[in-house]
Amino acid sequence: MERKVSRICFASEPDIIHFLQIAWERTLGSGFLITLTDGQSAWTGTVSESEISQEADDMAMEKEKYVDELRKALASGGGPADVYKFDFSKESCHFSFEKTLKDVSFRLGSFNLEKIESPAEVIKKLICDCLDTIAENQAKNEHLQKENERLLRDWNDVQGRFEKCVSAKEALETDLYKRFILVLNEKKAKIRSLHKLLNEVQEPERNIGHER
Amino acid sequence: MERKVSRICFASEPDIIHFLQIAWERTLGSGFLITLTDGQSAWTGTVSESEISQEADDMAMEKEKYVDELRKALASGGGPADVYKFDFSKESCHFSFEKTLKDVSFRLGSFNLEKIESPAEVIKKLICDCLDTIAENQAKNEHLQKENERLLRDWNDVQGRFEKCVSAKEALETDLYKRFILVLNEKKAKIRSLHKLLNEVQEPERNIGHER
Amino acid sequence: CPSTRQHFAREYDCYGDSYFTDTDLNQLKEVFSAMKNPG
After folding, report:
1. How big is the A-C interface in CB pairs under 8 Å?
2. Which among A109, A193, A199, B115 is placed 20 to 30 Å from B98, CA to CA?
3. Contact between C21 and B188 using a beta-carbon 8 Å cutoff
4. Contacts of C15 in chain A (CB under 8 A)
5. Residue B1: pLDDT above 90?
6. Whole-structure pTM value
């Protein structure tokens, strides 16, 4: 089950922090549980998939888009303070929220909640959920840190091998040319000596020819 | 300020979860604040550096070692369930904890707490601290995730360049040998033709020599 | 013996490469690998 706790303030009590927990199984759009607490009292409610669809229809909004708005408003830490506004009546247990866009506010949704008889248990559950999230994040953090160190080691390793390959390539070229030059010069020396021999052999013949 | 919230149970009420928050400035050994809550009531207390030193002395334990034990017991999520035991008397507001080692339990420390008049604020503060920790961890995780993606991209980049260098080195060797062979064989053809010419020139001379 | 030495000196250079027979990849690699570290 996915859970998200946000800090929110109500328009009617802007200095008092409340906590809103949304919990859902598969997707937010398939329905969710709401828990609201001020640290002393607690209220809960359920929003079904059909209620979400109905709300989207009433607003002439595509369901997916509406669910995205719900996520931003209720399950993203309360959203930017000046975008989403919340209100709650402790008398009627009616929770509502709206979105403000370019100074125009429009109602985004509302639910009826029920007051919990034993709020301490709900509050404890909420704190436990927070601690579980902290533990999960820390485990993920440690895993990512190890991955990070491994990737850095791998990068250093392959960078080292790349630099060695570049040096080896340069050294290979130099070395092969050196060897080639030595062998080639042997052939040139042989050609020079054969030319010389040929000249020596052909010289007397030219002299004989001249004499004749 | 460093903060740590743990879930603990008391020996006198093993099925009831309580939350213990420890907060300290520089180091745990320089003193810390304790907050205890059952989701409904809350108690706080302060432990000073001198009290910690005194406790360590009483136990004939090095202060560093004692602080380490405090960290494991109070600021590590409650520690393994069978190692650290906690107890709290709501009447006397006396909090104590002990360590069990090989079936032997010994007292690790105890503090006097004070009951809070308005527990809701303390509970809200504790939940806020949890949410802050969650947000910090998530930001850290996102940063590590980005770092990992960057390192992976860099690794792929260098690995690609390394593979290209290996191929280029092999291609260079092949290419150089081809060129060397062509040039050398040209020289050998020249040597063969000069040698043949020399033989042809030297042959009549040898015949003349034989006739003489 | 001297005559063998003379024969090889006529046929091969001091690195073992033939003056007369065309070389190929394997032979040239063999010649290069037998050469001491060229200065």
Report:
1. 26
2. B115
3. yes
4. 182-183, 186
5. no
6. 0.81
